[in-house]
Design goal:
Shape: elongated
Mean pLDDT: 89
Low-confidence stretches: 1-42
Order of helices and strands: HEEEEEEHEHEHEHEHEHEEEEEEEEE
Largest sheet: 4 strands, mixed
Helix content: 10-25%
Structural class: alpha/beta
Length: 386
């Protein structure tokens, strides 16, 4: 389900892209005095993100890569006679390419980031007969123009890939020089169960593999439930686990984190991205941050005193160490510790300090990932910024 709103390497990336970047993760309430810097794109499971609004989660700070979705600005339709835009003449090549570049700019994607075409009314699985072949011919032209407008970007088509209708036409659209990857719908609908979601997901992956086995599959997922609200942390973990087992990456579609009800998916996402990027919490000491809100939310435009407990979770006494300074914090975020010197701790022993966390009013991401570091450990803490 994509918005129809009016706001804008190929062969190399067919395989390489299928194994390159990441998603976003931050373990529950745990912190180190350094804000997380984006992880390098060294993972084997790329996570792409479509974010363009004023206040977005900023999944790139967790290691996701910004990518573009081009919505159906032109309102394409096809029937047995021809294809149309808004019921009339199709756009010119220049008009189409200008809009594609506009979408790339809106989503802030790099030159080599994927571009997904979301023209749902002309996907060939929804049409039949001459209408489908007319749509096929239009798709070839639009895909070619997209490649010409963004020559380094791999191009895919958002679709309902569990539907095998017109598979011959779909396969032909994935020929050399046309579509470079699959982007099947894999959202969590209201009332969805793991069983119903997996049945459709598995059917999409199986169908795509049968058509072009060597092209990457990047399912479209979202922490937003289609119908309202956010998925639980357990559900977000399930979606990503299934995707890692069967697909080659994911695209996270226009995610949201507007209030405390997003805390579960944000925290789980931090954990998952830590695994994907190889930057999980580590070391014998674990930092647990307790925001005054009682959940994962912290305010922008204020300094918040956050109690932090350091615990030795290993089986040996740890050496005395120090809390580490915040470095590389994005968007002007800063922090300082009340107490810096961590004493030697026996197994299971704890020590307390306070983090004075300052988030300026100019900060725009709706989440922030922090690393709470000592000289011996690194703990991830993901917050929702209100």
């Amino acid at each position: 389900m994509h918005w129809n709103s009016p706001p804008s390497l190929r062969h190399l990336l067919r395989r390489a892209l299928g194994r390159s970047v990441l998603l976003a993760a931050a373990t529950a309430l745990t912190v180190t005095p350094a804000l997380a810097s984006p992880a390098s794109a060294a993972g084997t499971f790329p996570v792409f993100t479509n974010e363009r609004n004023a206040t977005t989660p900023g999944l790139e700070q967790y290691g996701a890569v910004k990518a573009t979705v081009a919505y159906d600005w032109f309102a394409f339709t096809c029937d047995t006679s021809a294809c149309y835009s808004n019921g009339g003449a199709l756009p010119t090549e220049t008009e189409y390419k200008t809009k594609m570049l506009d979408y790339i700019s809106q989503f802030g994607a790099g030159d080599t980031a994927p571009v997904v075409l979301d023209f749902e009314n002309i996907v060939v699985t929804k049409l039949s007969g001459t209408a489908a072949t007319n749509a096929f011919d239009l798709w070839k032209e639009l895909i070619t123009w997209t490649h010409e407008a963004a020559p380094s970007a791999p191009v895919g088509m958002y679709g309902y890939d569990y539907n095998a209708t017109n598979n011959t036409l779909t396969k032909a659209l994935h020929a050399d020089g046309l579509l470079d990857f699959f982007a099947p719908r894999a959202y969590w609908d209201s009332g969805e169960t793991e069983s119903s979601w997996k049945t459709q997901f598995d059917a999409s992956v199986a169908n795509d593999r049968s058509l072009v086995p060597d092209q990457p599959i990047y399912p479209y997922v979202s922490p937003n439930i289609i119908g309202g609200g956010y998925v639980s942390g357990t559900t977000w973990s399930y979606i990503l686990t299934q995707a890692k087992a069967s697909a080659d990456g994911v695209v996270v579609w226009e995610p949201g984190a507007a209030d405390s009800t997003a805390c579960n998916w944000v925290s789980q996402n931090s954990y998952e991205m830590g695994v994907i990027t190889g930057t999980s919490s580590s070391g014998p000491l674990t930092a647990t941050a307790t925001a005054p809100s009682g959940n994962c939310t912290v305010p922008r435009g204020a300094t918040t005193s956050v109690p932090v407990t350091i615990k030795n979770t290993s089986s040996a006494t740890t050496a005395a160490t120090t809390m580490q300074s915040f470095t590389g914090a994005p968007q002007g975020i800063s922090g300082a510790w009340q107490y810096w010197n961590v004493p030697a701790l026996a197994p299971g022993a704890t020590w307390n300090t306070t983090l004075y966390l300052t988030i300026p009013s100019t900060e725009t991401w709706s989440t922030a990932l922090f690393h709470l570091r000592t000289g011996l450990s690194d703990t991830r803490w993901a917050t929702v910024v209100l």
